[in-house]
Design brief:
Elements lengths: L3 E12 L2 E12 L3 E5 L6 H8 L7 E6 L2 E3 L4 H6 L2 E4 L11 H6 L4 E3 L2 E3 L1 H14 L14 H14 L4 E5 L7 H16 L3 E5 L3 H7 L2 E6 L2 E7 L5 H9 L17 E11 L5 E11 L3 E5 L6 H9 L6 E6 L2 E2 L5 H6 L2 E4 L14 H6 L17 H15 L15 H14 L4 E5 L7 H16 L3 E5 L3 H7 L2 E6 L2 E7 L5 H8 L9
Parallel strand pairs: 3-10, 3-11, 6-9, 9-10, 15-20, 15-21, 18-19, 19-20
Antiparallel strand pairs: 1-2, 1-4, 4-5, 7-8, 11-12, 13-14, 13-16, 16-17, 21-22
The structure holds adenosine-5'-triphosphate and magnesium ion.
The site of adenosine-5'-triphosphate has 18 residues, from strand 2, helix 1 and helix 13.
């Protein structure tokens, strides 16, 4: 019998209008990776925030190595050997990696800050767990995958034995996911235990020893790895069988809607972010951008969505140059945008869902009358309809965006951007963080948009998603589109090859 590191017993937590955790019991063994899966809003993050002392349960008990403890705040969780890597990192961007790791735990020598001892200890942790990062870089200059390593080092530095990862892979490239899993394996070989939350069931099946499925706040089942399959997990999550495919409508392409011509962009350090990017998206077409994250995709979408000081080039919408237009003009002309970073853009967290769902349309009829007076009823009616259609899990349309689970927040943005009936839809990572049911729904909505003759620019780190939805695919590498494919005339392997830059010059 394995030693039980953690045991949560009958944890219940109620929020206004929602029973987020309903007598959940959950164990973690020494040397185990235990995946926690469930639909958006099922209660995964809530359970882990209770463990980390961010929420207090209404009832229930927590035992660490058989000893009952109460955890009133993260400090107490850390003292109990619990560490959590949140999806949105809690680092201080202008500080160095070293400073971020030791923050709050600094050792002093003769009253002066001593960084030599911690640096030694951290270097040992890096070696042991495959978490190499330059200690002297500023966190803001370090890519996301490495920032996550800093978060992991931070909790290991504080002696965590129980490590909680809330959707850690959502922001990682496939290679980084593999590296993270290597680290996971090293950690459990040292007798630590890992709780792994993810919506990507392939990953769960690859790495987890046990899988606990929760639905609407309750534990449905805990499966051993060898009895689990993707469709079984999906079915337990949703409560009914789930189809994991999209049907592609046959649509005749219309005229060019978006034309990007020789677009070049530099960052503030005068480093090229985009170089001579050219492509066209037609009405009724989904144009997918494949590429390893950080090769200019994010900036490309932002430059089309909002004004930016480009170096040269032109952006045309329905034949007219919009390069010098501001965001509002672009939105009014029919561009909608599902942004990649839903926390920085896209949502006003302290505002209600009703307000968030009409953001950017709130000054237009029917939401205002001809005297520009806001019609609150119309706004609420619209919100109710969208919540229903997109299956957004919320107590009401007056709930704040802040009170929604991560995936439901994402659904709010997708719903709003699709409901503007755009001519051009910019969809950046549209299904990041959403559960399989919602992913299927969003995919179908993109197909409907195509069928209705809208032009869609899809950027996704998920190559399967790009392959299954796009009509044409442009591969981005180092700020250039190095190759363009028709979907039927290529394979995942071929695209993967270009994504790594292997054929950087072959197409030129
Ligand atoms: N601070 C809060 N205030 C009010 N309600 C909340 C709060 N946090 C979570 N909830 C609600 O509790 C329920 C569970 O949310 P939770 O964030 O735990 O879901 P989740 O399983 O992590 O989902 P996701 O996969 O979307 O991240 C949801 O209905 C959510 O709206
Ligand atoms: Mg969550």
């Amino acid at each position: 019998m394995s030693e039980t590191l953690l045991s949560m017993r009958k944890i219940t937590k109620r929020f206004p209008g929602v029973l987020a955790n309903d007598e959940i019991s959950f164990d973690l063994f020494k040397g185990e990776i235990h995946a926690l899966v469930g639909e958006n809003g099922a209660g995964k993050t809530t359970l882990m925030k209770i463990l980390y002392g961010l929420y207090s349960p209404d009832s229930g008990e927590i035992y660490i190595k058989g000893k009952r403890i109460t955890i009133k705040n993260p400090k107490e969780a850390i003292n109990g050997g619990i560490g959590m890597v949140h999806q949105h990192f809690m680092l201080v961007p202008p500080f160095t990696v070293l400073e971020n790791i030791i923050i709050g735990e600094e050792t002093k020598k003769f009253g002066l800050l001593d960084e030599s001892l911690p640096a030694e200890k951290i270097k040992a942790l890096m070696e042991k767990n495959g978490l190499i990062v330059d200690l002297n870089s500023r966190v803001e200059d370090v890519p996301v995958g490495l920032q996550q390593r800093v978060e992991i080092l931070k909790i290991l530095y504080r002696g965590a034995e129980i490590l909680v990862f809330d959707e850690p892979t959502a922001v990682l490239t496939p290679q980084e996911v593999e590296d993270l899993f290597k680290t996971f394996r090293q950690l459990i070989s040292q007798g630590k235990g890992i709780v792994f939350i993810s919506h990507k069931l392939d990953e769960v099946l690859e790495i987890a020893d046990r899988i606990t499925v929760i639905r609407k706040g309750r534990v449905i089942k805990t499966l051993n790895r060898d009895e689990a399959t993707k469709s079984l997990i999906a079915e337990l999550m949703v409560g009914k069988p789930v189809l994991l495919e999209v049907s592609r409508p046959d649509v005749k392409e219309g005229p060019a809607v978006l034309e990007v011509k020789y677009l070049s962009l530099q960052d503030y350090r005068k480093v090229n972010i985009l170089t001579d990017v050219s492509f066209t998206v037609h009405a009724g077409e989904i144009y997918g951008i494949a590429g390893v994250e950080g090769n200019g995709q994010t900036e490309l979408v932002e430059v089309i969505a909002e004004a930016a000081p480009i170096l040269h080039g032109d952006i045309l919408l329905n034949g007219e140059s919009i390069t010098n237009w501001d965001v509002r003009q672009r939105r009014e002309a029919g561009i909608s945008h599902i942004p990649e970073d839903r926390h920085r853009y896209g949502l006003l967290l302290p505002f209600s869902l009703a307000e968030n769902l009409t953001l950017g349309m709130h000054h237009k009829e029917p939401f205002v009358n001809r005297f520009q007076i806001i019609n609150k009823n119309k706004i609420r009616e619209h919100a109710k309809a969208v919540i229903e259609k997109f299956d957004i899990r919320t107590p009401s349309e007056l709930t704040t965006a802040l009170a929604l689970s991560g995936g439901n927040q994402q659904k709010v943005i997708v719903a709003r951007e699709l409901s503007t009936e755009p001519k051009l839809l910019l969809a950046a990572q549209p299904t990041r963080g959403v559960d399989i049911g919602a992913t299927e729904f969003i995919h179908n909505q993109l197909m409907i948009a195509k069928k209705e003759g809208r032009a869609v620019l899809l950027v996704s780190a998920d190559l399967d998603e790009v392959m299954s939805l796009s009509d044409r695919i442009g591969v981005m590498f180092k700020g250039r589109i190095i190759k363009e494919f028709e979907r039927e005339k290529t394979t995942k392997e071929e695209i993967g090859f270009y994504m790594m830059g292997e054929k950087e010059h072959a197409g030129n």
